Structure prediction request, 695 residues.
Amino acid sequence: MHSQRSAIFALILFLSAGITVSAQSTGLTVSFTGTGNGTSAGFLLNGTGTITPLGSTRIQVNGVPEGAITSISFEFFIQDNSTLSAEAQVATTPNALTGTATINGGTGAYAGATGSFSFTLTAPFGSMILPFTLTGSGQLGQGAICGYVLDSGGQAFPATGGTGTVNISTATGCPWSLAGAPSWVTNATSGTGSGALTYRVFSNAGADQSVTATIGGVPFEIEQEAGSFPGLSLIGSMPHLAALENWTTSFTMVNKGASSATARLSLFGDAVDASGNGPLTLPLAFPQAAYALSGPLIGSTFDRVLPANASLVVNTAGAQVPPVAVGSGQLAGTGAVDGFAIFHLIPSAQEAVVPMETRTASSYILPFDNTGGVVLGIAVDNVSAQNAVIPVVIRGQTGAVITLPGTTLFLAGNGHTSFVLSTKYPMTSFQRGTIEFDTPAGGRISVLGIRTTPLGTSTTLTTIPALANVGTTGGSIAHIATGNGWQTTFVLVNTGTASAQAHLKFFADDGTPLAIPIGPPGVTTSTSSAVDQTVAAGATLLLQSAAPLSNPAPTIGSAQLTTDGNVGGFVIFRYNPNGQEAVVPLESRNSSAYILAFDNTGGTATGIAINSVSTQAVNIPVVVRDDTGAQIATDTIALAANGHLAFTLVTDKYLSTNGIRGTIEFDTPAGAQIGALGIRIPVAHTFTTLPALVR
Prediction:
């Protein structure tokens, strides 16, 4: 009864404050009777009643007749003398008083009371004081009596349908059922007290469909994907996700188009999970108000409509208990939808980004460095519904193949695997080099590397991007940092079959050559603004810049790579005092716009770096939008030829992004080329790269 009393008091506060809130009916029955006296100035009745099945109550009714309308005030004294009040107006006749009274209360676990009471008053109604009798019965809502807690806010189904279950916590004797279900939801069970409600969803050959039903007055959403969706096509895959136990994964989807689009996110499990390869059902939370539910959505696939330029964030939720669930995600859409994922290790607050793999390449290459306690984890995803036998080739730092001919990796349709490179392939222990995964004929795969470095009793996490479709145009690196604790490592790989020249140049913010200490890791470095080196076929070149910690400020800037061969790569910048790392991809795309999705909620900050690859000064148009797609700021950033700028949202620019989610777009000026990079900085300063999406 303690929780029932608390609910009564909370409801009284709601009513006394005059707050209108939604009601949640449980269908409990109240009956009452009483006697009193009435005059033309008013009447008073005291009565008793019973609320089935939870005991007795007293009723006091006060009223004042005003012509043909009488205002009546009810006070229900519930067992412990707590009161629940309501008012109603009823029409009168000379000999009878009839009408209904409704009780409304708050929402939540034990709040929200609604009742409808009909009654008849038989008495002469005039100026004299006359006795009268009132009897009645009706339905009393949840509020002060029953509270309902659901373990989810809804469930999402594929077009094939299925069986749904929702667990309900409530007091003994409190009834529940599924109210408001459409014809395509059937066989819903009902009961009293805590229990599990089950229901069935038919297969769907039509369009997307959804309904917000109620259980004990608590909203519960049931949604189902369309049997066929015109214009829906695969955008790309995210090769790894981790949820439950000590992990969460956050998915960010962005509509880059000027009109609304539908995004479909589908999750697939790993062979080590109980569900095996195939759909991976997880609890999912929608933190944005426009998409919020009363609890997590249970599902392995769902659709959402994104307005033009809007962004959607979806987080894995649920109890953080073993076992961990790992797998992959695929994004489909009807328009220019893009995105990425970030998985988060709760105990250490370490994070790593999972870029959306939109490329269809013949091979994907991951550079590795398993020296100095560094470990590379790898995830491979079969994006095809057909089984895949994936050829694997491992090369040492010089480009020599060190795997046996015929080495392969098998994945079932939509299958996923993740492993530690040096454990699965021991020849890579204490070595540097590359591992190549070749796409099977007619298939499609995606690959991700996760670099872990020692950090006290824990490790850091850093994404290693897969190299694919590497051309001969080189590219730019939007940010480098050295000194005052910062270290930058350049990782260059010749993915071609012939040796190639790599020309690496460094630029200051004002676009002038930037001299930095540069050389192989662990080797005495020289100071230079450029490096020219031959890279053998299949070989890996590592260069490192680490100016002294004693420098009063870090030296920052950008870099550009030119080559006469198929040389690609990335940069790892590291803050040595805390061991945190982040990767800066080599930007070889020449897009009309670069879009960075930011999330400045919960104390998280966003760092931005942009650079020019033009020999002329450029003016870069900037558009800032919130997560609904609404434009909240515009700007123009001037950069010198080969210039660079780094800043933090809110602190340095665009105060309107404080505490919100959204996107910032940098448009490439006519005839120019630029690059952009985002850095997510949580409260724990476990910074993570935010990939630039291109229009």
Summary: The CA atoms of residues 106 and 453 lie 51 Å apart. The chain is about 5% helix and 55% strand. The chain has a mean pLDDT of 84.
